[in-house]
Specification:
By secondary structure, the protein is an alpha+beta fold. The chain has nine helices and twelve strands. α1 crosses α2 and α5 packs across α8.
């Protein structure tokens, strides 16, 4: 990739991040976008337990010998992503955002990703991160799609949600569907069954880039992280078959409670099961005193967007997905 000319800021250094830098990186990500803080425990765990076959490059950005940002690249095994896409991240502390630093950091990490043999770079920015969006577009990224973000105020909607969850549970039971938590489900094959449901439904999410398959071991690890306690992960069962899944992620240190994933087996759609199982997780959060719950959905995922509106979610700044095609002379 030919080097993009950018105005250099004072004495910028990019040093490789070690595992001990995970908390610092989470602090820098939080300082870059305080509206959605990054949890230090989950950041470290993500670094400690990477998905099988994935490759990463992580760096602390320093200016005048002080940490001011965090940048990274990461991609799935090339055999799983035929377009050879690589995600890049640029996080610069808003209080230390010197002129040109965002552009410099974007250029630098994009070049590192290109050197890995990437052919398409993908970056994400919130709709209200105007400086980051401008920097990405300045160096050749273009907007591809939008992820909608919503928030449900449980302090005002909690009682209604609890009542609707109770009614939905009763309606499901009349149809032979049980809504229970993973902690209550004692099937010895429960993780394997949930893995198969997850893999089958993940491809139904509207997407431009390839969604690579997950290794079973990675899926089990993700279901065992501290933000996904099994007594807060809800499953809809038809006999011993899981037909829907919904859970919230509860960060152990900081950050909003957020929807992890909601899905329904294709053969069971159109029966209100997704709404019923989502309501169980929301009602539980309300009973736990959680003030609000966030969620994000692709802008083309009409069914889940309609469901969010019916449940009372309010729109928040979403995420813009930007792409840049690159030509490199590195890896084949």
């Amino acid at each position: 990739m030919s080097r993009i000319q950018a105005t250099r800021v004072l004495e910028v250094n990019y040093r490789p991040a070690t595992l001990d830098d995970a908390e610092l990186a989470s602090d820098l990500m939080t300082a870059a976008y305080p509206a959605r803080p990054a949890d230090p425990v989950l950041t470290r765990l993500l670094w400690e337990q990477p998905r099988r076959g994935y490759a990463f490059g992580r760096f602390i950005v320093e200016s005048a010998k002080r940490p001011v940002g965090y940048v990274s690249w990461g991609h799935a095994p090339w055999e799983d992503v035929p377009e050879r896409s690589c995600q890049v991240e640029v996080w610069i502390d808003r209080a230390r955002m010197a002129d040109g630093l965002l552009v410099d950091a974007t250029v630098w990490i994009s070049e590192r990703a290109s050197e890995e043999g990437s052919r398409l770079l993908a970056a994400y920015a919130a709709e209200d991160e105007l400086e980051l969006l401008a920097a990405l577009e300045k160096v050749g990224y273009h907007r591809e799609r939008v992820e909608r973000v919503w928030e449900l105020d449980l302090s005002t909607n909690g009682a209604r949600i609890i009542g609707e969850a109770r009614e939905a549970d009763q309606a499901m039971r009349r149809e032979g569907i049980r809504c229970i938590t993973l902690a209550e489900w004692h099937d010895s094959e429960r993780f394997r069954k949930l893995y198969e449901l997850n893999e089958a439904t993940m491809q139904d999410v509207p997407h431009t880039l390839t969604i690579p398959p997950s290794a079973y071991e990675d899926f089990v690890k993700r279901l065992s992280t501290p933000d996904r306690p099994h007594d807060r992960l809800w499953v809809a069962l038809d006999g011993d078959r899981p037909v829907a899944l919904s859970y919230l992620r509860f960060p152990p240190v900081r950050g909003p409670v957020w929807t992890g994933y909601t899905c329904t087996d294709r053969r069971y759609r159109g029966r209100g099961i997704a709404r019923a199982i989502k309501l169980q997780s929301l009602a539980q959060a309300a009973e736990l005193g959680v003030p609000a719950v966030g969620t994000d959905n692709d802008g083309e995922n009409a069914p889940i967007l309609r469901l969010n509106e019916r449940l009372g979610y309010q729109r928040q700044p979403g995420y813009v997905e930007l792409h840049k095609r690159v030509t490199n002379t590195g890896h084949a």
